[in-house]
Amino acid sequence: MLDVCLLGSGGMMPLPYRWLTALMTRFNGSSLLIDCGEGTQIAIKEKGWSFKPIDVICFTHYHGDHISGLPGLLLTMGNADRREPLTLIGPKGLERVVNSLRVIAPELPFPIKCVEIEGASQTFEMNGYRLKAFKVNHNVLCYGYTLEIDRAGKFDVERAKEQGVPQKYWSRLQKGESVEDGKLMTPDMVLGPPRKGIKLTYTTDTRPTDSIRENAKGSDLFICEGMYGEKEKAAKAVEYKHMTFYEAANLAKDAEVNELWLTHYSPSLTRPEEYMDEVRKIFPDAKPGKDKMSVELAFE
Ligand SMILES: [Zn+2]
Ligand SMILES: [Zn+2]
């Protein structure tokens, strides 16, 4: 089970009752945060989720509304007595940006490892999930992320017998271990075909791109920016390299996702709900993201 929380839904600046866009997930005791603007740590506190298990923080890009909350969060994690290493992932320049911000948070009780994303996309395997960063199209280098959790096939007794796998090894093989006893026995010898896993996609601060269409394909949940609900702001979205609600809805439709949450609203957009009837004509399973909106994604 993957717990997902959209911590905030604003773009550009935090507002009363609307924190900046950031995503937090919890899986198997390990938490992941994507983006950390001003006030993100308050949103985490309001949600009641713990700072201490945050093992990875990813950044889409280095605009202030996505990273200026980092030093404060690091200090809070230090105060929560975290000792385990923390991994930061982001576009090229991560180390320089983080070192600059850390002038005001120099002493922390845990080590930090910076991983700069290489090329158009990069995949990381960690903490039981697969995280993929893929390049999108903003006015600075920017990446979207997918998080996937695989699900192995069902245990197949007939297959295990056919392959002559002794029963005493069944449970180890089912857990994904390989066993050597006269011959090498691998999990695929006792398992049926892989079953559908869990997939989450998060993209913000970008124009619609093929990379989003391809990478978001079949997501259970697609969290996507929608800076403007007003149709007359389509040109503005192009100019500032953002999206309208309708562009996000078309991406969701093309990528055949299960559900779309909109986020990263312009501060001038006070009531995103007003535009949802039009959005749902394009993609029916669309919701206006709200601060601290969350869901548990489970295997089918
Ligand atoms: Zn932004
Ligand atoms: Zn931006």
TrEMBL record:
Cofactor: how bound: Binds 2 Zn(2+) ions.
Function as written in the Swiss-Prot or TrEMBL entry: Zinc phosphodiesterase, which displays some tRNA 3'-processing endonuclease activity. Probably involved in tRNA maturation, by removing a 3'-trailer from precursor tRNA.
Residues bound to Zn(2+) 2: 65-66, 205, 264
Family membership: Belongs to the RNase Z family.
Subunit structure: Homodimer.
Active site: 65 (proton acceptor)
EC assignment: 3.1.26.11
Record keywords: Endonuclease, Hydrolase, Metal-binding, Nuclease, tRNA processing, Zinc
Keyword Cell membrane: no
Cofactor: Zn(2+)
Leading EC class: hydrolase
HAMAP family: RNase_Z_BN (MF_01818)
Entry keyword annotation includes Hydrolase: yes
Residues that hold Zn(2+) 1 according to the record: 61, 63, 138, 205
Any one Gene Ontology molecular-function term assigned to this protein's record: 3'-tRNA processing endoribonuclease activity
One family name in Pfam for this protein: Anti-Pycsar_Apyc1
Catalysed reactions, as listed in the record: Endonucleolytic cleavage of RNA, removing extra 3' nucleotides from tRNA precursor, generating 3' termini of tRNAs. A 3'-hydroxy group is left at the tRNA terminus and a 5'-phosphoryl group is left at the trailer molecule
InterPro entries: RibonucZ/Hydroxyglut_hydro, RNase_Z/BN
Protein name according to UniProt: Ribonuclease Z
The organism's place on the tree of life at top rank: Bacteria
